[in-house]
Amino acid sequence: MSARVILRTFGPFLRPQWPGCLLAGLLAVAGTGVALLKPWPLKYLFDEVLLPTDGSGGQDVQRILAMVVLALAGIAILDALVGAARSYTQAVVGERVAGAIRTKLYDHLQRLPLSYHERTPTGELTTRLTGDVDKVRALLTVTLVDAATNVLTLAGMAGVLLVLDWQLSVALLLVLPLLLLTVASFRARIRAVEEDSRAIEGDLAALAQESLVAVKLVKATGREDQESRRFRSRSDAAVAAVLRSARTSSAFGAAVDAVVAVAIAGLVWLGAQRVLAGALTPGDLVIFTSYLRDFFGPTRSLSKLPAQLTRAGVRAARIADTLHRRPAVQDKPDAQPAGRPQEKLSLDGVGFSYTPDRPVLQEVDLTVPVGSTLAVVGPTGAGKSTIAALLCRLQDPTSGRVLLDGADLRDLTGASLHAQVGLVTQDALLFRASVRENIAYARPDASAADIERAARAAQAHEFVQALPDGYETVLAERGATLSGGQRQRLALARAVLQGCPILVLDEPTTGLDARSEDAVLRALREVSSGRTTVIITHRMAAAMAADQIVVLDAGRVVEHGTHSSLLAEGGLYTEMCLLQGITGPLAFLNGTSGYGRHAAGSCESLPEHLATLKEEA
Fold first, then answer.
1. Are the C-beta atoms of residues 550 and 376 closer than 8 Å to each other?
2. CA atoms within 13 A on the CB side of 617
3. Exposed, middle or buried: residue 48 (CB in 10 Å: 0-12, 13-18, 19+)?
4. Residue 368 gets which letter from DSSP?
5. Fewer CB within 10 A of the terminal residue: the chain, N end or C end?
6. Could you give the C-alpha distances from 479 to 419, 470, 474, 491, in angstroms and in order?
7. In whole angstroms, what is the distance from residue 189 CA to residue 584 CA?
8. Among 524, 422, 434, which residue's Cα sits nearest to residue 479?
9. CB of 43 within 8 A of CB of 68?
10. Closest CA to 563 of 616, 492, 501
11. Beta strands 344-355 and 358-369: pairing type?
12. 3-state helix, strand, coil in the chain (%, to 5)
């Protein structure tokens, strides 16, 4: 990524900081002027005090010496003050720019589609928000500013040297092509090793995040040593990649320094010859050698700029790639606010696919009248969770429409829609905060009474009261100190407090034991009372009391009806009920929580079960 592209991408983050950028630029100019003044007192020291050509001495020499010493001290103090002011200004501008980039990147990540987050490791995204942003900050506010300062310094020195002795200046300029050739020979290698190093760094962060999130599984399976070896292997690869980058950078720096050293030696010899020939004074040679040293400092820095741009460009390209991705779900310019549901939420001929050749849903039609409960069931991979995402407009359908009272969700504003349709995910996501804060996540201003009412509705109040600090108990990360059923009931309480008239529950009983499942099912009955509810589940116990049940298979609706009517059909729904030990048409209503009169694993064969159920129905 070139400097021009970097500035075009990240320039908008610099514009609000233009006063600081202007001040840094003025300080850079002032610093250049001070740098040009540094050797001049030494010229007078040599020409007027140490090696005077007119034989002057006495008090004039002492006066000149005092002036030289004062000038040297004054220039040094001025240089320190200007340098400190410039460094602080750059730090202020840099941190503000980094904060703006980091905030914009995080905000953009929140709006990117779920498919992007599912494909990109969390550790990789964390690295972009931290290490990559820091590299770009350094590039924008240190590297490029220093480069501009170096250009000004070189221009000033070149002008002075031309006045002093044009022949030496021409000899000096002849060295520049050698530096450019050295830079060109290393640039491709630096880019390759930096890209490799950055990729391995992202993989290492992703591996660490993945292993730490799954630490319970690691411990339960006794894989600590294997995970340590796996991390050590990636860490060693990261170290090797960084060392390759360091070797390449060191070789590049050594090559540049060698060219500069040879050039300085040759030019000093040539300058000494000019002094011996009487074309220059000793003081002029002091200025020339001082500028020569300082000239090659900025030149060396500028010669390394392409390598620095390459390294930072790899990081900047990853940030730019994320920022240039457009969110899949956006409000239309003329989007209207969604009103409170009056009639129904429906899918009309909906199809969805992540890739054209692999459809997830095909021609799905379903309707949820206001105040009713719809259960969507089916085997794993049937497309159930995709329907949950579509109903909440976390995704837009590839074909067909999702409608709320006849209005396409794409014609409604996202904020107003999310106030009408709430989602409880199967992961029961909780934050490292108090129970009160977790329940009130969607309504931070909710009163303690409202929070407690929501917890009671979700059957969570009793176990919350039993926690060490009740509602003020701070949960571990992801609610790790709670059981699955407790986490799910807190998630339900959060949805209740949010107050959405439509509630979408995505696999609310997944992974729960019988007692926890029973507690969550009782909470579901309480929560869904008076609400429009869609239950996405593969657990028949959670579905059988719904007003209507839709059965999905391979992305299509294959059955639709009530629990009793679907059992009478003897199709996929009946088979799923039998596999879970649910056979009686009134099993749930009889208080058995889905465990009916015919237990799974009984002596009857599946066809015999189906025949019996048809007779009962």
1. yes
2. 19
3. buried
4. E
5. C
6. 25, 15, 9, 11
7. 71
8. 434
9. no
10. 616
11. antiparallel
12. 65, 10, 25
Contact 457, 531 (CB under 8 A): no
Please tell me the distance from the alpha carbon of residue 149 to that of residue 137, in angstroms, as a whole number. 17
Structural contact between residues 535 and 374, judged by C-beta atoms closer than 8 angstroms = yes
Q: How far apart are the C-alpha atoms of 5 and 315, rounded to whole Å?
A: 13
Residue 17 is encoded by which pair of tokens?
């900081």
**Ramachandran assignment for 271, one of left (phi > 0), alpha (psi -120 to 50 degrees), beta (any other):** alpha
| CA–CA distance, 518 with 600 (Å, rounded to integer) | 18
Nearest Cα to Cα of residue 289 among 304, 270, 309, 312: 270
pTM: predicted TM-score of the whole model, two decimal places: 0.60
Contacts of 413 (CB under 8 A, 6+ apart): 331, 335, 336, 337, 338
Task: Encode 199-234 in three state secondary structure.
Answer: HHHHHHHHHHHHHHHCHHHHHHCCCHHHHHHHHHHH
The DSSP bridge pattern shows strands 373-377 and 532-536 to be parallel
Both tokens assigned to 529: 């009372």
For residue 596, give Cα distances in angstroms to 128, 312, 574, 602.
53, 64, 13, 12
Which two tokens mark 220?
């339960």
Q: How many CB atoms lie within 10 A of CB 413?
A: 14
Buried b (16+ CB within 10 A) or exposed e, 6-24: beebbeebbeebeebbebb
pLDDT attached to residue 599: 34
Domains in the chain, CATH or no CATH each: 3-324 (1.20.1560.10), 344-561 (3.40.50.300), 563-617 (no CATH)
How does pLDDT run across 445-476, given as a tens digit for each residue?
Answer: 888 888 888 888 888 888 888 888 888 888 87
pLDDT tens digits, 31-77: 878 877 887 777 777 766 666 655 555 557 777 777 878 888 888 89
**Structure-block tokens of residue 190:** 């630096």
DSSP letter for 340, please. Answer: P
Beta strand residue intervals within 465-537, DSSP E? 502-506, 532-536
Rounded to whole angstroms, the Cα distance separating 474 from 220 reads 25
Give the sign of the dihedral formed by CA 125, CA 126, CA 130, CA 131: negative
| Nearest of 127, 119, 201, 155 to residue 29 by alpha carbon | 155
Residue 348: helix, strand or coil by DSSP? strand
